[in-house]
Specification:
The protein has about 300 residues and is an alpha/beta fold. The protein is built from 7 helices and 13 strands. The strands form 2 sheets. Strands 1, 2, 3, 4, 6, 7, 8, 9, 10, 11 and 12 form an 11-stranded mixed beta sheet that branches. Helix 1 packs across helix 4. The radius of gyration is 18 Å and the shape is globular.
């Protein structure tokens, strides 16, 4: 069974201060995406699909497409404000993209096999890619509604330099029951993990399992996604900031009994670059992995 890795790389990096998905973190100029792609190819993924903006297509092709030629089938799709289902109009002052669910939807015409979806600015660990590849290769039907998620402990996914967004999960017998997106999680001065939202505060369990947007789907998802995106846009297309997130879609599908989601035991290391100050730690983490022999000093030499 062929499998695809879908990388969401269209973000503008407002909190980071630039295109963090293209920033050099490895000793030979590698981005975090390079390590994810390297791990995915070694785990058996056959095709790599990038969701990007047309505004940085040229730079993206120079950094990725040429060097990956021959290593996997490479495709680009574009997440633009006007790339929407037919008949949808939106506010003329809108600048913000429509969210991760819209990003996945843009790849609907070129993915016909089981696929994994990840963020471009997160490091997930090679164990996670192996676990997800094994799950996806077990799928025998393109419309199978059994999906998967790699879960990580909340305490291991926070930034020391500002708030983050995380999908906090409720799990029963290794299957996902609910996933609730928290968009303003930070560590307080007394060390507690707090979600600040709508003028309220909620203390979160540091050992809670969270979604870091490493999902495994079959192409059957796109039918549901199209229906839900149309409904979302019907209600929100004239708003300036509303976004539709993949965890929202998954949570709804579980409640509707249109999907079951296995939470994979990945035993993997995660780190990311939400804020500019996170870069130094990410660079050091990669150097340690290279010293341990997990990665070569130059990934693509």
């Amino acid at each position: 069974m062929k499998t695809t890795l879908l990388l969401l790389a269209a973000g503008m990096g407002s909190r980071y201060g630039g295109l963090k998905q293209l920033d050099h973190l490895g000793p030979s100029g590698e981005t975090i995406m390079d390590y994810s792609i390297y791990d995915a190819i070694n785990a058996g993924f056959d095709k790599i699909v990038f969701v990007i903006r047309r505004s940085f297509e040229k730079e993206f092709r120079e950094k990725f497409v040429d060097k990956l030629r021959g290593k996997a089938d490479i495709k680009l799709v574009f997440q633009e404000l006007d790339n929407l289902p037919s008949g949808i109009e939106y506010h003329p002052d809108r600048q913000k993209p429509w969210g991760t669910a819209h990003a996945v939807w843009t790849a609907r015409e070129i993915i016909n096999e089981p696929f994994a979806m990840i963020n471009a600015d997160d490091f997930y660990g090679r164990e996670a890619f192996k676990a997800m590849a094994a799950f996806l290769k077990s799928k025998h039907s393109a419309t199978d509604n059994q999906y998967a998620m790699c879960g990580y402990k909340l305490i291991k996914t926070l930034s020391e330099h500002g708030s983050v967004s995380r999908g906090v999960c409720s799990i029963n017998d290794n299957y996902l029951e609910t996933v609730v997106e928290h968009t303003n999680i930070a560590i307080s001065e007394n060390g507690k993990i707090i979600n600040h939202q709508d003028d309220s505060e909620k203390i979160l369990d540091p050992d809670s399992i969270v979604s870091m947007n490493f999902w495994g789907f079959t192409p059957g998802l796109f039918r549901f996604l199209d229906e839900k995106l149309r409904k979302f846009l019907h209600n929100n297309s004239m708003e300036l900031k509303s976004e539709m997130y993949i965890p929202f879609v998954v949570d709804e599908l579980i409640k509707e009994k249109n999907a079951v989601v296995e939470v994979l035991d990945c035993d993997a290391q995660w780190f990311g670059v939400t804020h500019k100050e996170d870069k130094a730690k990410a660079v050091n983490n990669l150097l340690k992995l290279i010293e341990q022999g997990v990665y070569p000093e130059n990934l693509w030499s």
